[in-house]
Amino acid sequence: MQLWKATNAKNVVYIPNPLTFDPNEIQVSNLTSKNIILVGRLDKIFKQQHVAVEMMSQMVLTDPEIQLQIIGNGDAEYVSELKQLVLDLNITGNVQFIPFQKNITQYYQDAAAMWVTSSMEGYSMVVAEAKVFGLPVIAFDLEYPLLWEAGMTKVDYMDRNGMVRATVEILSNRTLALELQREALRSIEDIYTHKTVQKWKRVIGAVMNNQPITAESGVSTEKAKKILISQLKVINPDLFSLYEQIQNI
């Protein structure tokens, strides 16, 4: 969305994906469990679930009852690698591997927080879903994802110790956890399904009546450039290195 804003495109309209859950029918988490969830495909490069497993070896030192639920499917070799890492770190009683679920409601409701260990994200529906259930989300700070601007706790990229500290504080401070829950719920109001439907109606109406559709503004070209560079660093490190060399000439 930020790139779209920066280009000031005249014939392109940004409309967010609607929520997959109806907030009016959801019972939010009471945040009393010791479950941390991590949801998404198991992927070593982009989702980095192994980082979460490594952090759990530190988390259990603060509370041996803390649980990490890794929910999703992925490459069999990486799954085996993750399970071996759990064994090596002696935390088999604290990490659960749960296959992809069509109905994930209960896992969100039973969680106390969500981790996002991704190296890059776009419009993360997993983050949106977590916020619907009022979960505090702790993530590595990435430049560009929409939805990450409120109701989130962000630490420097790959700062494992920082994420552990932030998580321990949230799990041990109910006042903080409830405040993050309120922020999370407020931050998703703009993507309620009925609002997305209204945006589609406005676009279709404008097209049918041959009226212009004005793009939003708010992200500078410099910001858009920064976003692209941050993506390049992950997707193609060699090309990113070449870019840096050119910049230093």
TrEMBL record:
Domain Glycosyl transferase family: 28-141
SUPFAM superfamilies noted in UniProt: UDP-Glycosyltransferase/glycogen phosphorylase
Gene3D superfamilies per the UniProt record, alphabetical: Glycogen Phosphorylase B (3.40.50.2000)
Pfam family, one: Glycos_transf_1
Alphabetized UniProt keyword annotations: Glycosyltransferase, Transferase
Designated name of the protein: Glycosyl transferases group 1 family protein
Domain of life: Eukaryota
Molecular-function GO terms, alphabetical: glycosyltransferase activity
